Amino acid sequence: MFRLTRILMTAALLAAGSGAAQAQVVISQVYGGGGNSGSTYTNDFIEIFNAGTTAQSLNGWSVQYASASGTSWQVTNLGNVLLQPGQYYLVQEAAGSGGTTPLPTPDTVGTIPMGGSSGKVLLANVTTAQTGACPSGAAILGLVGFGSANCPNPTGTLSGANAAIRKGGGCTDTGNPTSDFDVAAASPRNTATPAAPCSGPGVPAISVADVALAEGDAGLTPFIFTVQLSEPAPVGGVSFSYATANDTALAGTDYQSASGSGSIAETETSTTITVNVIANTNTEPNRQFLLNLTGINGAVPTSLTAHGIIQDDDIGTFNIHDIQGFGLTSPVAGQRVNTLSNIVTAVGPAGFFMQARDASIDTNPQTSEGIYVYTGSAPTVVVGDEVDLTGDVDEYFGTTELKAISNLTIVSTGNALPSPVMFDANTPSQDVNALSCVETNFECFEAMRVQIDNGIVARANPYFSTDNYAQIFVSASGTRSLRTPGTLYPLVPGVDNPDAGQFEGNPHIFELDADALGAVAPNTAITGGSRFTATGVVAYNFGDYEVWPTSFTVTEANPIPRAVSTGQPEELRIGSFNVLRLCDTLANTTFECGNGGEPDAAALTLKLSRLSDYVGNVLKLPDVLGVVEVENLGVLQMLSDKIATDFGVTYTSYLEEGNDGGGIDVGYLVRSDRISNVVITQFDKNEMWLDPRDNAMHELHDRPSLKLEGTFDGQSFATIIVHPKSRSCVDAPTGANCTQADVDRNRLKRFTQAQSIANRVQAEQMAQPTRPLFVIGDFNDYQFSDGFVNITGLIAGTYDNNKNVIDLPGANIVTPPLWDAVNSLPENEQYSFLYTEQFGAILGYTSASSFDQGRDVPIMQVLDHALLNGPAQNWFVEFEYGRADLDAADQDERNSTTAIGVSDHDGFVIRLNTTDRIFANGFDN
């Protein structure tokens, strides 16, 4: 990532681990303050230690982190390393913008942003992400919390200076982290640190440190390796054999091979081994060879490896495109280079971006013409300066940069800036099979100037730790990050849905950090759906490409909340809203009802107030409001009472209990001053199905549908509110918690539920074919097929077997088909729910090195629908979502006491004219 000012992600992370008493390998140190303001180190880290007496392979092991009260664990896999007795192993985690000291060379690198004061960490002999607050079992080799962690016996609270450090150099292990760990100044150790075996006095630990030196220009350069004991050699001394081996350096070309035997005499503590490096004047990357110690007698471990790092000291002159090269990494990484006559395009607090003049660019669009220069402090250059400099080429967390800068010369000032790349509907590419850059959609634009003339915000600011208004997600195409038809890319082989198509995951969506370079003030909220123009540079941060603008202008703001139209007094208005688990304060359901547990009295009062605000000021008091995720009639009546107090409108509440283990049901709020002759009927609460999970009969409908029949202005109508099974374990297996059997079962249950609902819809049409019928609610499904089971289409009568993996045995059940009112909306308004997916998961990648595996992409999707039969469509005037939940910045939702952020869905209202639609908009068309 570019090392500019950057606020750390998510505040809750990491702790150091303790295991069962006398564990072989233990967590020996944890530090979560890396990169925070005022911190010592630039990165968080976890350190483990072999406290046993035999070597231990770490292949297939992992360290994992969860927040202090969390149940979701993030994973960093350990390397295929044989950890010797007394040897430490350093796992580097996420960096921030603060800190003064880099970590020692890590043994493996992860990207987990750890909490600076509280959290919990575990060591496991598997790489599968664990679940639960305090996982246990054979796979868990150590678990410890720190600070306010909710696992037993946490260590003290950590800080930017202090880590949790296991006592006795890592050897103390009673199973109680409170007593096993000190909170003290962080002191990271790696496999190159002298071993400190727990075997006691008389058996010294042996170590040999790496040597890194410039190769020189002529002759031989001696690399002197020091072999060190942790205490004086015992009686009889210590002996060993040694031999060099090729790595990236070659014997005879880069160094002279060496081998032989060595010893450390009794009472002595060290000896040396010399390997001669062959100097030259060729410009080349740094190389390294190995020095292996074997057959060690009188000390532990019995074998060791050190590295001889040959640093190239020959400097060549390169254009930026030659430094960047073709692909993800620089062809001259590790070399010291000169680069001349480039123009400064943007300046940050710890470095600057520069780009080649237009006249100097090459003809290959796959090689970037820009690069970031890391200075470590405020640069002395300004935008428009022409500069020459010398620096080391470094691949820093996936981005090519120059560091260790010298000979920085300002050749001229006030120069015109290089032309920007135009980001638009074609760039970056929207086709995952034809990305803009080799392997990625952004690498070939790295550090280059870009211009966006028709940008739109796909998702408003999330928050990370103290960065309350972090980077937004945007598109340069002018369209939102919308879910489109088909299976998650790639198409699952062997399924019978060739017409389903592929949803390619919106590869053109990228992040934009508006305040990274000061284009907007810090803590500026930018709402989803807002349009903007921007000019800036392409950066890379926390595993994702971003644009850091030097100028940013909102051209069309999307104010939140944005209410639906009030319509005309003679119109019937029907709405639907998923209220996100409106539950009372009683813990009387099989599973927790509330969003995060049952609310207390104060939380319930606040929730009711916010929902009332949404119904009154965002949905504008519809005549009929179908509600989803309500625990019982009592709490729905409480909402009705609150609306009456706030707006003077009386709603009658209707709800019938269903079968959901969390207690959530569907219901209605009906305006008694406008709707009469109300009759409520619950459908199929006791319908059973054969569940393949246990091959037993169970209730089919967790939230049985509810029909409302009523009269408005002398006209009868009917609605059916639905809430079928969720989308969990529907798209593809995800591991132990979502197997193929789970996927198959969940698809089948959704299909079977939709068949049942479709039969009810068809029965209503046949019984009263001229009566307007509306099927509304949270369908947990899109307006098109996901390539697996399109339950919305099944209920509407538009199901296509070729686009689904489960076939209807005959023709569509519902005929004539219903019409989905969401299709009346402009493309950018077709969403009611926001889901964030990792792009690599969409692509089916599993390797950590695969392109953009961890890149988050917000996906706007329709889950809340209104299906209308022909007579209902004849009344149709307008369909609108009330915008208060999906387009607000996270921090505004967190602090809200109003409608903003009260749910994770946006509700909708349909306007209907039951008489003459010529005057539906208040004037004669």
UniProtKB/TrEMBL annotation:
Residues 1-23 form the signal peptide. The keyword Repeat applies. Keywords: Calcium, Repeat, Signal. GO terms for cellular component: membrane. InterPro entries: CalX-like_sf (IPR038081), Calx_beta (IPR003644), Endo/exonu/phosph_ase_sf (IPR036691), Endo/exonuclease/phosphatase (IPR005135), Lamin_tail_dom (IPR001322), Lamin_tail_dom_sf (IPR036415). One of its GO terms (biological process) is cell communication. Residues 17-194 form the LTD domain. The keyword Calcium applies. PANTHER family: ENDONUCLEASE/EXONUCLEASE/PHOSPHATASE FAMILY PROTEIN (AFU_ORTHOLOGUE AFUA_3G09210) (PTHR42834), ENDONUCLEASE_EXONUCLEASE_PHOSPHATASE FAMILY PROTEIN (AFU_ORTHOLOGUE AFUA_3G09210) (PTHR42834:SF1). This is LTD domain-containing protein. It comes from Dokdonella immobilis. The lineage of its organism: Bacteria, Pseudomonadati, Pseudomonadota, Gammaproteobacteria, Lysobacterales.
